[in-house]
Amino acid sequence: MTELVSAGIEPLFRLLSRYMPLTAEDRAALTMLEVGPICTKEARADLAREGENPSVIRLLVSGWACRYKDLPDGRRQIVAFFLPGDFCDLSVYILSELDHSIGALTPVRYFELLPHQFQQVIDERPHLLRALLWHEMVASGIQREWLLSIGQRTPVERLSHLFVELYSRLKAVGQAQDHCFDFPITQHNLAEANGLSLVHVNRTLQEMRRMELIELADRQLRILDLEKLKRIAMFNNNYLHFNRE
Amino acid sequence: MTELVSAGIEPLFRLLSRYMPLTAEDRAALTMLEVGPICTKEARADLAREGENPSVIRLLVSGWACRYKDLPDGRRQIVAFFLPGDFCDLSVYILSELDHSIGALTPVRYFELLPHQFQQVIDERPHLLRALLWHEMVASGIQREWLLSIGQRTPVERLSHLFVELYSRLKAVGQAQDHCFDFPITQHNLAEANGLSLVHVNRTLQEMRRMELIELADRQLRILDLEKLKRIAMFNNNYLHFNRE
DNA sequence: CGGATGCTTGATGTATCTCAAGACGTGTGG
DNA sequence: CCACACGTCTTGAGATACATCAAGCATCCG
């Protein structure tokens, strides 16, 4: 089911073509990234831990992962979701130590790219660097929007906003259609991402079902009324910087 | 008082030399950025509004500014503080529309740089690009840490963490000594940055004074026990990525 | 003098957390 | 094949941290 788009690097094509048109040559160059064996991890495994010196760039092919930070006493905050097509840690180029961890939320498959492989593609087709930086800046924009959510939005607004965001991003990589998508993470994960307790997430979801905004069952999320959901979330898609709708 | 370091671009030197050593030639090249008239704004004025197409890079010389996002109903979240030496919106290069606003928290002075001026400096001394990207990545890391703060830290922990962070950053640009620094923003600003109500910020500050962590009066913040403050905040400076302590 | 602006305090309500338990499904080893 | 552990979702009861509303005071400034 989750393997409808299993072709390794296809989600990346779709993602980048949201920012700029990709020629056949661009695609060919990007396909070079697909070298090397594909890696896999179980749900709840770490791909990288805070403090490590990152040496590879990871390109997520299937499954969901997250960036998270934790405190010495165990509190944990998910600060970003990685969906298929996303890069983890382009920052390898500049920073020498990870200030966060990366964990799998579901079983994941990904490529590990060495910086020089990466460099090779960029040298060949410099304008692709622009698309990749674009992706990074969008990631930054998402972080800011999350800060707004956690700081100011109510729990219903917050979850509504997240669902619209995830729907937009998944649609961009061909993993959502008809207001419906695989939603493989737990309520516990939602709580960690939104600064809420597990119990409160559960009750908030119930309220959203009562409001007939969503259906959520069997790891499938269906948005019943997208416009209403956007209105409630005060969703403005400008922060995703998709140039081509 | 706030003008101890008034020499235009000096804070930038200090900031970047936290990441890599700067030669005299580097400094000379950077000084080229100081062309053009210096701009000023009053406290509470906007330097840029969400939705605008940014055309300049701003280099803050004195005063404090912030990045913020707001919701249609007036709720507002400060997502970053800009201190002297900071750049606002290097993203001009890539993104065509601002997804956030930039506002002055105090009277500010800054330079407006056109992308081509900027480009000229980088062309001349390419390794400076690395320092500037570094600065951007640190900004990203700070955003993540704030997400952790707002999502997981209690109000006392949250303010403690922010104060240690500001102290570190101000010290890096020569604007703090002896656990003491100008603190020109209001409790209202603190509330907007930390997702708390104004009243609660006030009471939290009082608690921190009672705990003998800080003194805060007359726009001056004094940290009474830095180690204790760090412990309470669970502060780990890795996210600031200062290479040279 | 009157009007902003910022800080402080008290009273009250409620949104959200914590603790605790049960139901259900799934995988696992005896 | 059953017993059991484990993960996930759900519900209830109770406590409290935080927001909201309201007011007073100080300082500054035109």
Quick description:
2 copies of one chain form a homodimer. By secondary structure, chain A is of the alpha+beta class.
Summary keywords:
disordered N terminus; globular; homodimer; 245 residues; four-stranded antiparallel β-sheet; Jelly Rolls; Arc Repressor Mutant, subunit A; DNA-binding; alpha+beta
Name the structural class of chain A. Answer: alpha+beta
Number of helices of chain A: 8
Proportion of helical residues of chain A: 40-55%
Enumerate the spans of chain A where pLDDT stays under 50 for 5 or more consecutive residues.
1-6
Largest sheet, strands/sense/barrel of chain A = 4 strands, antiparallel
Instruction: Enumerate the strands of the largest sheet of chain A in spatial order, edge to edge or round the barrel.
Output: 1-8-3-6
**Annotation, overall tally of beta strands of chain A:** 12
What is the name of the CATH class of the largest domain in chain A? Mainly Beta
CATH architect. name of the largest domain in chain A? Sandwich
- Beta-strand content bin of chain A: 15-25%
Overall 3D geometry of chain A? globular
Name the assembly state.
homodimer
Average pLDDT of chain A, rounded to a whole number, is 93
Radius of gyration of chain A: 18 Å
